Amino acid sequence: MLQLMKYEFRKTRTTKLVVVGLTLLLQIMFMFGLYGNNEQWMSTGAGLLIFVATFGVIIIGLQSLLTLHKDMSTKQSYMLFMTPNSSYKILGAKVLECSLSMLLMAVFFGALGFLDVTLLFGKFGQLDQLLEFFRSVMKQFTDQIHFTSPEIISFCGMLLCSWLATVVTAAFSDVFACSLLNGKKFAGLAAFALFVVLNMVFGWISGLIPPAGTFVAAMLISGGVSLIITAVMYFATAFMMDRYLSV
User: Fold this and answer.
1) CB contact at 8 A, 71 and 98
2) What pLDDT tens digit does each residue of the chain (247 aa) get?
3) d(CA 12, CA 139)
């Protein structure tokens, strides 16, 4: 599995390096503007960093899905299935690589954004005001949610399960479209339409679940539903890969 994940990472490495490299260049522009008292450079760098952070994670996720689409709809898939690996391992490597790459990039951009905001307020002598703002925001939340360890863990777990379900649903939509419309020009559009419909259906199903009495219970139920969706989509996708796309 680890070797397959490394192989998947190498196939999307160029896109990741471009996004990270562009981010570092814009960060340098922002820093020069901030400490060189060049407001135009600072504002341009900050605006472009926000743009790259917003779309960078999405682009990396799309690149992984486009790689999956290429693997499933071209002759390259025959070479993939000739390796001594099951469809379940191949799909698992693709899903894990995509999920981890998007998660790590989201953490990277989040940490960089926090650093830049701290530097910006510190440069203009307003760091105390920023810290006071964070304290007031946290106080508003803690008045409603006490942020106990179970609440934090359940919330993070719910986000991860939801993230994984989204990635696997996207993989299912693409493999389903490739299985039925292999070689057709509109297979990618059909996959996107199916992905949107499935997410609407899953959202409707989740809405039918009665509200839980506590925050932790609500997060556990939501995460459990996401895991069920992940499992169903994963096994259905691997089955289609074995049945219609493997050699």
Assistant:
1) no
2) 677 777 777 878 888 899 999 999 999 998 888 888 787 888 888 888 889 988 888 888 888 888 877 777 666 555 565 666 677 888 888 888 888 888 888 889 989 988 888 887 777 665 566 566 556 655 555 555 556 677 778 888 888 888 889 889 988 988 888 777 765 677 778 888 989 999 899 888 887 877 777 778 888 888 898 999 999 999 998 888 877 766 5
3) 42
Hunting for tokens 């993230």 — which residue is that? 163
- In terms of residues, how long is the chain? 247
